[in-house]
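Field: COMPLEX_INPUT
Field: COMPONENT_COUNT = two
Field: RESIDUE_TOTAL = 392
Field: MODE = joint
Values follow.
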Amino acid sequence: MSHSHSDQEAHNAEAMAEIKKVTIILSVFTIVELILGFWMIGMTSAVLKLTIKGTIVILMMAKAFYIVAYFMHLKHEVKNLIMTIVVPLLLFVWFIGAFLWDGSSFRNLRNNYNPYFKEQATIKVEKKVEEHKATDAKHEAAATKHETVETTHEATKPEVEPYY
Amino acid sequence: MSTTTTASPNEAKLWEGGKSPFNSEYGKVMMWYFLMSDAFTFGAFLISYGTVRFSTNGWPDSNEVFRSFPFAPEGVHAPLVFVSIMTFILIISSVTMVLAVHAGKNMDKQGVVRNMILTIIGGIAFLSCQAWEWNHLFHEGAWWGANPFLNADGTASTTNFTNFFFTITGFHGFHVFSGVLINIIMLIMTLMDKFEQRGHYLMIEKAGLYWHFVDLVWVFVFTIFYLL
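Field: COMPLEX_OUTPUT
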């Protein structure tokens, strides 16, 4: 309230400049992500793919930071408030690490000790080309709606039940 | 604004009573805590998706699955195009929300109304895009418990992919839907001069926090499902 009129205007200009800057940063990061995504289509090199995916994750985290810090204004809050929000979220570091590690360990265990699971990952299945049109045509009849979905599902299933 | 106090050297005095130690309004602090709990819910969904994906040998290629575009002729495949439009709609609606909050701080009713309307339009546009995509995938035979897409390496896929996709984008879409409702209520309250009478537009700020959170979650959902 003690601010003078020109103070208020200077503050306004500053805030608008910040909004503009963050908007541009978010758009540019999204465009870079999309370019990387397009580049990855049909790529075979696993190492390069992993590098690009890592880059995309870093860009994603940067976007999240800009949204929370500037759009949600967290950066301009009191330090205590920032800490009560950010510190509990650090649990995610452990969550992500532990669960992804557990997931890949489970895959390795099954590939080593469950021959059936491993075999399933090598059997190629025929892709149904006409499926789309057939589903659409049948879909006209509302009564058979649910059934159609079921049949589609059955059609793509391999001979044997996959082991989930 | 009058309430911009930085964490000053006499921070200890904040806790000696007489003023809010967080220098923030009660409802805003509580909105932050609600969003934190919501972040854990979304986090749990996305981490379980990651865990299942890491424990599976094959997975469908997202560029094969999400390659359609409204009104595109049969056989035209445009991976990533439609979802990038959805992403930009949400980013722009987030920007208009910031502008609405900013106008509210200046007690600029016209600015609030204009930007809230734009934000609501953005939200509805996003929901329409999602409705189209869900409908399209459903017609291709994808639904909870049904996955017509093969793994990227040509092996048989499980229904994990579609189950996670519909659950997580559905939960996010529900958040967008409630965000649009909240924004409409805020718009009506603004038009009824409720905030002018109160002397502040703090409610717009709280609705804004929720809306930005929805955008934030989409940053993660979009990256994880469509790009990785």
